[in-house]
Amino acid sequence: MSEIDRGxxxxxxxxxxxxxxxxxxxxxxxxxxxxxxxxxxxxxTPTGPGFLYGDSVRRLRPNNPETAFNPxxxxxxxxxxxxxxxxxxxxxxKALTEPKSDDEIRDIAEYILKDLRDDEYHSDIIHVRRNFxxxxxxxxxxxxxxxxxxxxxxxxxxxxxxxxxxxxSPYSGVPPYTERRKNFAFYNLHRIKMTKDEFECNTxxxxxxxxxxxxxxxxxxxxxTLEKDRFLYSMxxxxxxxxxxxxxxxxxxxxxDPDTGNMGAEP
Length: 267
Description:
single chain; 1 helix
């Protein structure tokens, strides 16, 4: 936190929302990590969005016997900043009965997202949750993240490689501040082009949850599993918001910090 100008950071409960202006002293090193600048240390202390805690979500995990991916649900996350400036966040799940094509996954995600936007739900939508409450996954599934705002005003930090859009951190932004798991479960982050004209943005982001540990072994965690043996992650979702008066600042970083993982809950 030493490299963040605390005067421009605002924290909130629930989703762990934070607005932060990065200090001028943070500079990328040759690996794309953020480091303390000007101290003579070529490696530096990993800070900022470039710090990898576990594997990158951009890593492609092939679907083969060693790393089989058989998703049981699509989990769609709908985020919208309302006119009062507050984020409306809802997510829900829909069961998958068989392997689906990419286009079918997109159609299912749009089906869920429309329900979440309208706050009216079909009977096959499971567990509608708000503000990242109960953002848990007990099976392999596909997560679709969607920000339903004008991208000129606020957007996901979708640089060319999507490398800074989702990162995992050692500790949560909300209590309890216990250490979280490194990412060895979330992979294959990529864009999805939406087909519906009714949304304000036409891009969503797909992330595959393999439900695996660092060895690639599929986890089986139930309600009776000890808490210390469950897997809880701190997922940082990075957004960029245009300031009202740009001047020298063209975008203000926003971090959504939900806790997520395999905690023995359904689905």
